[in-house]
Structure formats: structure tokens, C-alpha cells
Specification:
Number of helices: 21
Strand content: 25-35%
Oligomer: single chain
Distance between the termini: 70 Å
Bound molecules: zinc ion
Number of domains: 3
Structural class: alpha+beta
Number of strands: 39
CATH architecture of the largest domain: 2-Layer Sandwich
Low-confidence stretches: 183-192, 407-412
CATH class of the largest domain: Alpha Beta
Radius of gyration: 31 Å
Helix content: 10-25%
């Protein structure tokens, strides 16, 4: 009856259950003998209808709160029939055979604990189920969209090939998807739209939003964007009305259909004349397989009525358009005046500081030494308790922090008196007082550039760096709380692979911290009148723009000759200004993905901007550069077996045993490895992406992941060491600092430098 491999454990479970539960076994047999199905071809789509008398329970289910409260929950362990078996799944779910089937194989996947039907937090589990049940479709009925147990969180899974939208997907629907531009994802829109993302399907009787993703890509940011954009639920506490139906293709790609709903049931359901029809659509009906519980309805339903029912319970054109607009996001309002930046300076249980000019606190004028302490979730200042203290300077503002450790996280151990301009906000947080400096963008930037950049560097390079730094800080402020990508450690781990990348996390209480985590900011004492300051003032208000938004202007120390593409280091996004190009003019697109090409390239010393012997220039550009720093345009390290195996075990938490081989699996066109296969005597795994490879192979991080591997002498088949020969320093995406400095020295101006490293962007003066 099914082409699915009966060795799959959930299929075995399915047949075991049928053997032990005759009533349900009979219902599954009835599906083939008694439940008739007929096709309902309409203009564009092929719908169908199934006569299924056993579904009467579900179609007539009373799902109002009172009725639900009165009945025992049939998905809770305690109330399920004795015959009903279950299989435990990950994340506290239980697999149950659905006793009222629509599909030849039909499961209910119920949460172990009784909790309301709600998808927002559970989307990741849903996506996992698509992979776990890759032979089936997996679907979700929202609380007022066909779920007969809205009080108990559950999904369903069933045979592929029966629901028309899935059955005819490849030919009738997928080719007609319209990509919806997503604001934070707009970089993917240049020439060709992203393959993965949110799409609209409009050649179906009801509008369908489609998330196309891959089992290895966490689609929850996309889903959450869509969820927030949908028409709101019937009440503020309820989720938007939706059905979800999805499946995984053989290549791991996942199709997730989201059917927004305007109605629980169509009008015909409530009629009391002959035109009444007991159709109560859930995900399967929305996907085009309409279930009727009586013969009359089955006989008289026409393609047109089926079409009308779906479009009636779905959302209209206006709501669809509004949803799309919300997904796009309103255009970010670029600032037209110099914004004030909120910088988290430090946190401590007591903070003392001196106001060197008059500040206002309500009607009071304050000056001189102050001390604020944390007390009971609030702030204690001059004997009074406040939830928050905001001090507004009379003029520019001027205050001093005596001998404090610099940086909010204190990993940078240094005591120093610091002076700041601007306003002060004090907040209680986590048992401590947090001091936030409200400072004008250009003042902040002058301090950052003066303390981070050597002012004897070429001036055009300093200007390019000032614009990058300004773009970063303003983007940070502009995009705050609007990110749809994840933060912190991202990626996935399974039995074959460990793939990780790192995204900077956002601060909640302020825009940026004063530490290296964001940009090091040490107050106004750092601002000295030199070339660094000149670079800031001469580029006042200028930022890097792509498609009406401020760019993510990433940079690294040395690209090694070819810049890398963004997606080999971070998320799978195509960003048109982070493409792979050689570091010379004219720049030719890089193509070092091929192992042989990469080897040839790394073993050579090609002419490019960052291939420089100018030691004096290097000294000026790189903070960390000293005499111990070896060459990094081309470098070599040898790692002894013992150190390597210990290191890998420590970083992955997995004992690989002795390391037998390190094999490149995937390289970006810039030559940087994004996946490497680590073969040990105990286990073998693929590790990625770029930074994870560097981190796992060396305590001090390898200079880059653009390397080739040579095995050292072997003892009993175990190499005693590995020699890595590599190119460049850092991820290689965006501006190559060394290359840019050389360009500056060679007489290119900052506009040419930025155009070279961030193609397709423009420079815009905001204020
Ligand atoms: Zn329950
Ligand atoms: Zn920070
Ligand atoms: Zn370079």
C-alpha cells in the first residue's frame, strides 16, 4: 500500500500499532475500500475531495473553550485508549497513530505535556520533524483552523502524494513562486533572488506563503518574520490563524507552506438549508484535498464550490498585500541629523564619577563628585532611590570616571582615568549599576578612530576606515532589534558534521559597549588633533550604502590575495558587496574553490595589494603587529600530533583519538576552507565554517582557513605532525586592511579604496 521502506522505525511502529488495534486497522482499510476520492479540476489547480465518514468527530468537533474544558484531553497520556501505543521522539514529543485517518499512513505527533496548540516557539521542532519524517508530509492546524485539540500541542504527519498542492508541487506550483523581498535579507536581491527565503504562491485558490529552506538552515528567523507580518489572531493572546503543511525533498530541501486563514469554517457549514456542507478545513483541505463526512456533500461539491471554500477561509488580496509589506519592512529611515549613540561604559555595584560641568536632573542642577549604588533592583543616589537616572548636560557635557577598569566585561585589565563628553544614563541591571554615555556620533567616532588607528597611516586609508566604523555604528543603531538572523553561536551539529559560525550579539540596554566586543571607546582624552581626527572630520556623516540601507562593512587584516564570499564564513546569504575578487586592480573574480587551483595559489606569491614587504607600513596598520609576527601573506605552521588531538578533543568535546588526516572538503572562491574532514582513529567528522576550523586547529587561532595540509612522518600509519601552509590573516571578507593601506600609500583615494573592497556600494553623506 505504500512505497515507503518498511524498515524505517516509524513505519514499523505504524504496522505494529495496526496489528494491535483492530478498530483503527479497519479505518485504515476503509480508506482504500469505502472512502471515495474524486478530482476537482479548476482553472489553475487540481483539487480533490475525499468522502470520509469516520472524520465526523473531527469535522463536528466543538472547539470552543467551554466544550474543550469539559472533555478529557485525548492527547494526554492518562486519557488515551489502552490500545494506543506511542513512540518517544526528540524534544518531548510522542508519535501516535492517528485513529481517524485521512492518509494511508497517518500519525499524530503530540507534545508529551499538556500545553496549548501554539507554533511560534515550536517551529524548530517542526523543522526537525520534516527531516525526521522525510518520507511524509508534516502539518499543523492552528487552534481555530481545524485543530480538534487546540488545548494540546500537536502536529500530524502522513503519506506524501495525496494532497494536491504537494503532489503537483514541482510542476504546477514551484515554478510560479514569487520571491518576497525581505528587508534584512535584501542583499540577496541584486541580480538573482535567493533560492531560500519567503515566497508567495498566488496561483492557488487561496494565497499561500512559502518558506523554502534546507534541513541544514534554521528557518525559524524566516518563519518568525512571516508570523509577525500575518494578520493578527482573533484576540491579542491568540496566534495568527494558520495552517502549515511541509515536506522535505530528497536533496534535503524543505518546502513549508503557510496558509493564512480568515475563518475557521466556511459559511456553508452554518447554513440550515439544503446548501449546508459539513466541511471544516484543516491543513489537508487547505492543500486541496477536501474532506466531506457525508455522501451528499461528496456528490454535489463542484470544482467551483471547492475553490470558493478555500478562498473564503483563506485571506484576501488586501491582507496578503499588507503581509508582504510587513515582511519587506518599512524602509529604514536613514538619519538626517547626527544621531546620539548610547555607549555602555561600565557596570559595577557602585559607580563613582565627577561631573566637570553642570548637569540637570529634573529641576536640580548637579555638579561635582557623585556616587550611585545598586540597591534592591533600583539605584541609590544621595540617599534616595530611583528606577533610572538620566543626567542632561548644560552644554556639551564633561565627566570623569576615576581609575576604572575599562570595558563592561573587564577582560581587558587596565585602570585609567577617563573623561567623556555628552549625557549620562544610569540603569540597574543584574545586581549592578550600568553607566551609559549618550554621545554624539562624530565625538564617539573620533575617540574610537584616534585610539584604534595609528595616525601615521596613509590618510586615505584612515578615511576609508572612518567610514567603515561610522557605517558599523549607525547600522548597529538603525537595525537594533530588527535583526532576523540569529546571534551568538549559529549552525548545527549532527553525527557527521559540526558546522558553526559566530554572529555578534546585540546589547539590550544600549547601542554598543565600550569594549573590544563592539569598538573600543576610551573617552575624549583619546581625541588628539592628528590625521585620525582629520579622517573623521573630513568624512563627517559619510556612510557606505547599498540599496537604501547602510552596509555591513566587514573587514579583515589580510585577504591573502583573493577576497572571500560571505557565505563561506557565515550564514548562507549572497551579499552582492561581499563577493570574491582578487586584491588588485583590475580585480578579477576569484575562483579558488578547486583544490588544485588553491594549492597552486597558496604556494605562489602573486602580485596584489596586500602582498607587501613594507614592514614600516605594517607596523603602523596593525595594532598587534610586532617583531614576533611572522609573515602572514603566506605562512606555515607545524602542529605535533599530540597537541592537535588534544586540541580537537578539547574544542569539540569529542574524542577523535589520534588524528590520521585533515582533508579539505569545501573551499570558497577566495580559497578559504569552509569545511574540513577530520579523520581520527576513533571518529571522523566534517568541521566548519571558517572560524571554527581556525579555532579548532590552533589555540591562538590559525591566521586563516586558506591553507593546504601536509602530513608529517608517520608511525604505524599515524602522522606525527601536520604542516599547514596558508595565505592571509582573518576571514578575508570585505576590506583587506593591509591591501587598503597599500592602496592609500599608492595614492588611491578613500572612494576608490571602498569601491574596490565593497563593489556595488555608494558613499552617502547623511548629515
Ligand atoms: Zn492534553
Ligand atoms: Zn559590545
Ligand atoms: Zn588583500
Amino acid at each position: 500500500m505504500s512505497s515507503i521502506d518498511s524498515n524505517i522505525s516509524y513505519i514499523r511502529f505504524f504496522y505494529q500499532q495496526l496489528e494491535l488495534w483492530p478498530v483503527v486497522n479497519q479505518r485504515f482499510s476503509d480508506l482504500h475500500t469505502q472512502c471515495k476520492t474524486k478530482e476537482l479540476p479548476t482553472g489553475h489547480s487540481r483539487l480533490s475531495v475525499q468522502f470520509n465518514p469516520a472524520r465526523i468527530q473531527s469535522a463536528k468537533a466543538k472547539t470552543d473553550t467551554q466544550s474543550i474544558q469539559k472533555r478529557p484531553c485525548f492527547l494526554c497520556d492518562a486519557n488515551r485508549p489502552n490500545e494506543q501505543m506511542h513512540q518517544d521522539l526528540e524534544h518531548d514529543y510522542r508519535l501516535l497513530v492517528n485513529p481517524f485517518p485521512i492518509l494511508p499512513i497517518h500519525f499524530t505527533i503530540a507534545a508529551k505535556h499538556h500545553q496549548p496548540q501554539s507554533i511560534f516557539q515550536e517551529f524548530t521542532s517542526y523543522q526537525n520533524m520534516l527531516n525526521q519524517f522525510s518520507e511524509l508530509i508534516v502539518f499543523y492546524n492552528g487552534p481555530r483552523c481545524g485543530a480538534s485539540a487546540p488545548d494540546h500541542l500537536h502536529f500530524q504527519a502522513g503519506s506524501k502524494g495525496y494532497v494536491p498542492i504537494e503532489k503537483y508541487w514541482n510542476t504546477d506550483y514551484e515554478p510560479f513562486l514569487q520571491y518576497i523581498r525581505q528587508k534584512d535579507d535584501l542583499h540577496t536581491m541584486s541580480e538573482k533572488p535567493s533560492h531560500y527565503g519567503i515566497f508567495l504562491l498566488s496561483n492557488f485558490p487561496t494565497p499561500v506563503f512559502v518558506i523554502r529552506t534546507h534541513k541544514y538552515i534554521d528557518a525559524s528567523p524566516l518563519f518568525h518574520t512571516l508570523y509577525r507580518a500575518l494578520p493578527s489572531g482573533p484576540s491579542p493572546s491568540e496566534e495568527p490563524m494558520i495552517n502549515i503543511l511541509g515536506w522535505q525533498k530528497e536533496n534535503g530541501e524543505q518546502i513549508i507552506l503557510v496558509f493564512p486563514r480568515s475563518k475557521h469554517r466556511p459559511d456553508v457549514y452554518f447554513r440550515d438549508d439544503d446548501s449546508r456542507m459539513s466541511v471544516s478545513p484543516g491543513a489537508i483541505d487547505m492543500g486541496g484535498l477536501i474532506i466531506t463526512i457525508n455522501q451528499e456533500d461528496f456528490d454535489r461539491i463542484t470544482p467551483q464550490t471547492a475553490h470558493d471554500i478555500l478562498s473564503e477561509v483563506g485571506i484576501g488580496k488586501k491582507e496578503t498585500q499588507e503581509t508582504i509589506e510587513k515582511i519587506h519592512g518599512r524602509e529604514y529611515q536613514l538619519p538626517e541629523q547626527e544621531p546620539v549613540i548610547e555607549v555602555g561604559i561600565l557596570s559595577h555595584n557602585v559607580i563613582s564619577f565627577t561631573l566637570n560641568e553642570t548637569y540637570h536632573f529634573g529641576n536640580q542642577e548637579i555638579i561635582g563628585e557623585q556616587s550611585v549604588a545598586f540597591t534592591d533592583g533600583k539605584l541609590l543616589w544621595n540617599g534616595k532611590v530611583y528606577p533610572k537616572i538620566e543626567l542632561i548636560p548644560e552644554h556639551e557635557g564633561d565627566f570623569t570616571l576615576p581609575e576604572v577598569m575599562i570595558g563592561i566585561q573587564f577582560h581587558w585589565q587596565k585602570k585609567e582615568t577617563q573623561t567623556f563628553k555628552g549625557g549620562i544614563t544610569l540603569l540597574p541591571d543584574n545586581g549592578q549599576v550600568v553607566l551609559v554615555n549618550r554621545v554624539k556620533t562624530e565625538t564617539y567616532l573620533s575617540s574610537v578612530i584616534c585610539s584604534e588607528m595609528n595616525s601615521t597611516s596613509p590618510i586615505e586609508f584612515l578615511k576609508a576606515s572612518a567610514i567603515i566604523s561610522r557605517s558599523w555604528i549607525l547600522a548597529q543603531k538603525l537595525h537594533k532589534n530588527k535583526k532576523t538572523t540569529s546571534a551568538g553561536v549559529c549552525g548545527y551539529t549532527n553525527d557527521k558534521e559540526i558546522i558553526r559560525w559566530y554572529e555578534q550579539s546585540e546589547h539590550q540596554l544600549f547601542d554598543v559597549c565600550a569594549d573590544d566586543h563592539c569598538q573600543r571607546y576610551q573617552g575624549t582624552r583619546r581625541i588628539t588633533s592628528n590625521n585620525s581626527l582629520k579622517a573623521v572630520t573630513e568624512t563627517r556623516g559619510e556612510v557606505l550604502i547599498f540599496d537604501h540601507d547602510i552596509c555591513d562593512a566587514r573587514f579583515s587584516k589580510c585577504c591573502g590575495g583573493v577576497r572571500e564570499e560571505y557565505r563561506y564564513c557565515w550564514d548562507e546569504l549572497h551579499i552582492p558587496y561581499f563577493t570574491s575578487h582578487q586584491d588588485k586592480i583590475p580585480a578579477i573574480a576569484g575562483n579558488l574553490s578547486d583544490e588544485k587551483e588553491a594549492k597552486k595559489w597558496i604556494e605562489s606569491s602573486p602580485e596584489c595589494f596586500c602582498n607587501t614587504q613594507d614592514r614600516d607600513l605594517l607596523h603602523r596598520i596593525l595594532n598587534q603587529y610586532d617583531h614576533r609576527t611572522k609573515d602572514f601573506f603566506r605562512w606555515q605552521v607545524t602542529i605535533p600530533q599530540k597537541e592537535l588531538s588534544r586540541r580537537i578533543k578539547k574544542e569539540t568535546g569529542i574524542d577523535f583519538g589520534k588524528i590520521i588526516d585533515l582533508v579539505p572538503v569545501e573551499r570558497g572562491p577566495g580559497g578559504h576552507l569552509s569545511r574540513i574532514k577530520v579523520t581520527g582513529t576513533h571518529c571522523t567528522k566534517i568541521i566548519g565554517k571558517e572560524l571554527e576550523i581556525r579555532r579548532i586547529l590552533s589555540k591562538t587561532h590559525l591566521y586563516s582557513s586558506a591553507f593546504i595540509v601536509e602530513k608529517g612522518e608517520e608511525e604505524n600509519g599515524i602522522p606525527q605532525s601536520f604542516t599547514l601552509r596558508g595565505a592571509g590573516w582573518g576571514h578575508g571578507v570585505g576590506m583587506c586592511q593591509i591591501g587598503a593601506a597599500v592602496m592609500g600609500k599608492k595614492g588611491y583615494d578613500y572612494k576608490e579604496i571602498l569601491k574596490h573592497y565593497y563593489p556595488n556600494t555608494t558613499i552617502k553623506k547623511l548629515y
